[in-house]
Amino acid sequence: MLTRRQAGEVHSRGYATLHDVRFMSLLEGESFLDDGFLSFFDGRIATISGYALMGQPELTARAARATCTGWVTERGAESVVYLGPKPVDLGCLGRLGLRRICFMPRTRLAEELALHMGAKRPSVYRRSRRLPFQAKLLRGGKIRAEHLGLFEQFYRAKNLTPYLAKFAFALPALLSSPWIWILEARLGNELQGILLFDRPFETCIHAITLARRSDSTNVADYLLSSLVDIAEGLGVETVNLGTSPSAGHHQFKVKWGGKQHTPPFYLVIWSRGHLSRRYFDSWGPRLVGLAP
Q1: How far apart are the C-alpha atoms of 190 and 29, rounded to whole Å?
Q2: So what CATH class is 4-106+266-287?
Q3: Which of 35, 43, 155, 194 lies 20 to 30 A from 129 at CA?
Q4: Cβ–Cβ under 8 Å, residues 173 and 29
Q5: What's the pLDDT tens digit per position in 152-167?
Q6: From CA 239, how far away is CA 86, in angstroms rounded?
Q7: How far is Cα 207 from Cα 196, in angstroms, rounded to an integer?
Q8: What distance, in Å, lies between the first and last C-alpha atoms of the chain?
Q9: What residues form DSSP beta bridges with 145?
Q10: How far is CA 88 from CA 30, 185, 271, in A?
Q11: Domain coordinates of the chain in residue numbers?
Q12: Domain 112-262: CATH class, spelled out
């Protein structure tokens, strides 16, 4: 668990989704900070970020191997997930009884894109501000059935991925968190779309997820244009739009002027025992028997 001093360091020097400890802890477990690098642990799986906080030296391959080994030998991790801008040979984990079950090379979809508030706004911004929706900004802290219904409708229409399954288990906790902001788009009394964001860092806000009605067009553009106005009012420098689950998502962010905020990540997973049978075994599915 982070100390108050460490939490302050992350707030002042963080910039990436993997540094958003409140959000990441809902997905990956308790947060730890060692030598400027964050890790998360759910009791069995350790997730290590290879992205250094601002002002910290780059994580070397030797330090990455030592960190990953320590999670197994000193803290009892049965699985190690490493995400970083450069590949790291973790063959040392094989000597501890783990085997590599997943390797994902970096692609453009794994880069985080961000909007810079000082940049010229794209033409889509001006068009979006003329759309007939009405924006409403709420704080998290309680569950609203209307929001749950919209998220269910939106995600049921999509192909289930490991990340979406993990996110679904965290969604109620996310919506009920007081540090979350909920941006609605309405037509009269009808909810058309919703965007969740937080401000984990001094100079950046993080757009976490968006959902919309399938029959509502241009609502994603409207929500993002409203978020740009909010970010400008807060005086932040950037809006982190995160990675992209598909080429269409990436193109949408680029259309809005998104520029590379973090380089794409490599992903590698080493596991042993039951956790080595498949690469998606996060805490939520394990809890209800959907994973070992």
Answers
A1: 36
A2: alpha beta
A3: 155
A4: no
A5: 999 888 877 777 778 8
A6: 24
A7: 6
A8: 26
A9: none
A10: 24, 43, 16
A11: 4-106+266-287, 112-262
A12: alpha beta
